[in-house]
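Q: For a teaching session next week I want to show students how multiple molecules come together into a single three-dimensional assembly. I've collected the sequence lines for a complex. Could you give me the predicted structure tokens for the whole thing so I can convert them for display?
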Amino acid sequence: MLFSSLEFVTFFCCVLGFLFAVRSNPVRKLFLLAASYYFYAYWDYRFLSLILLSTATDYMVGRALGRTRDVVKRKWLLAASLVVNLGLLGYFKYCNFFIETAAPLLQELGLHVGTLNIILPVGISFYTFQTLSYTIDVYRRRMPVCENPLDFALFVAFFPQLVAGPIVRATHFLPQLRQATRLNSEDLYEGFRRFTFGLAKKVFLADRLAVYVDFVFANHALVDTPTMWLGVLGYTLQIYFDFSGYSDMAIGVARMMGYDLGENFNFPYLSRSFSEFWRRWHISLSSWVRDYLYIPLGGNRGTRLRTCVNLLVTMLVMGLWHGAAWTFVVWGGLHGFGLVVERVVLGREKNRPSRTPAGGLLGWGYTMFITVLGWVFFRAQGLAEAWVILEKLFVSGGGISWLHPFVIAVIAATVVMHGVRATARMDWLFEKRSWYTPAILLSLLWLTVVFYPTRFTPFIYFQF
Amino acid sequence: MATCWGGGLLFSFLFIWVVCSVFGNSITPPVWDEDLQIYVRKSGTTVHWRSEGWADIPVGPMGLDVNDAVLLESGVPCFALWGDSHVDALQVPSDERAVGLFNSGGPPVKVIAVGGGGLNVADYYFRIPRLQRKYPNIVGNVILLSGMADVIPGKTLECHSRFLPGPWRFEESLCAPTRLALKYAPLLSEMRLGFLQSLYSKLKNHDFRFVWGPETAVARPAVVSDDESFSYEEAWNYLLTALKREGRGRLAFIYIPPTPQPAGNVVRIQDPEAPLVKRFGVACAANGIDFVDLSRNFQDLYLKQGLFPRGFFNTPPGKGHLNALGHRLVAKGLQELLEGNR
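A: Of course. Below is the structure for the complete assembly, covering every listed component.
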């Protein structure tokens, strides 16, 4: 069920109606859990069993961790959780990738292994990381054990963030479930505001950009250089509007019900360095990877070389999290390379000299250039395709020309908006409570419903 | 705050009204035409088309482009070019349509366009005699085929007449606009509020699904199936004889292929229906009917100039309706066909 579908609007109105009518917190949570399971089963009820398995495992591991002080036993319990969660993720997401990668070697050994017919369960990467963060935090004694199975199940399956994040930490969300939240006009207004912005980003911008981007990437060998550039820049904006739009909708939906999911995006294309980019893009994932991978690897506590290796490993894993393909590994590697270059040239972020406008512009140009090139690998169907696209971008060539005015207008408008925000620090469009905010929100709603696309365009991050 | 929301609602409505007036397709009220026995666009209105291409088409009597209607009513001898939405050609300005380009060359016998979305040979069978009865200056008919499904019996399309086998026959079928459309379309058209109608039909036609997944998809039937119990030649002999009998003067066909078309890093040049087109051409020749296949011209446009006859600045190249280049090729086809009359 897509947030931008009429089915979801109907479903959510029913949920809100129930929450409005019922005051008992346990009953409301039970209803929210049932609604969340229905929300997931709407896509495919068969994979609900995976969520239930993951929930049961981590709930029981959490409780067992709370009861024992035995270090070895605690390690075994953590390992059990990691095996179950990462095992499911590994099987459903990476099994075919490893088979395909190992196939040439196996063939040399005289073994012929075919790929398996596996459907990737939607949201598995998100809820796996979410439940893991709980178990690891309990293991590290950074949070108390969740004794209430209803609270824990709802933390895992809460429908606004179930299929594509934000990846909510248990430390942030479980305390909210313990409090009896009442629907109030402030939350409804702010939630509606966020939802509307997200809806417009997804439906009016991302989905319309997708028509152009899909054509250009599907016919990358045929189009000319300017068209290829416009396609790549179009995708740069499409993925931002699509994913940040989804996050806004998720945050807005949760907020309307009185829950806070945290932030996931903060104008990432204004970043003047890669470290800044990852504090602004998919914040919930980058902070997860920082806390549960980069820091345990040693973070920046060792030598410069060790820090660079940690950065690279972290970003390669980050790439692989997005998808089981070498293109994602290269994408992660590019970002890792960007971070390493920054670290080597400029040193640790807190020791860097304050930026001059020229330095800021240079940093922004460098970050954006590699980011845009990175999206080529992210979007391409394979490494060979990515190389052809890069060649097309940098070696001027003829071919089909199609420069869509809408795409050009969206790029220009985004540049202007970002420029205004970066220089004047103006927030007029995103003003929370000014007299003209209703006019902006309702205008965006009109644009969305009137120009609603006729073709089905799922959120890009659903595939991860 | 209530005032802000009230004002916001008013502002947003004005905003979307302005946006849709510039960037949205307009609607035109349907009116009943006694002569053609169909619903047509109301005369005196203008079709503003934005979703594919960009054109403003003034509507004349019988829902025709006003230039064609004027020509028809002036009494000058002319051919009628029949066809589906490719002939209706809302995507290009009047003077860039095939008939506009053809007529601009000053031929003694002009051509007018009589098209409509989804029209097929069965529709033409019923409409040709009616139009020719009213306008004796129509000296012949040219039918533009944009796909072979239009001449294959048994391929029914909702709200359109049918050419059916066993026994061979034509059945007239028409969908009347809803009472709501008849009542409110003039007002919505007048006030440029077409977006409300489009919103209403989106909601009305939305297929709500609340049942648990996975969702199952239904495969579309093939356009041309092999298990038909009749021979195409037999069907076409009946069709061509019937069309010749019902229409006055010369009858001819022009075929435009769906290719060339970009299809995943290759440009598909070969028309998958080419063998059928060839057979139809032979059937036409056997019945003394002219048939012009523009497949080669369409292919050459891409192979020699790298250009596509379909697609616009706001739609993918090679896909959708004919653009100005495509119409130019059809105009050349008309010249080739009607040269003997010039």
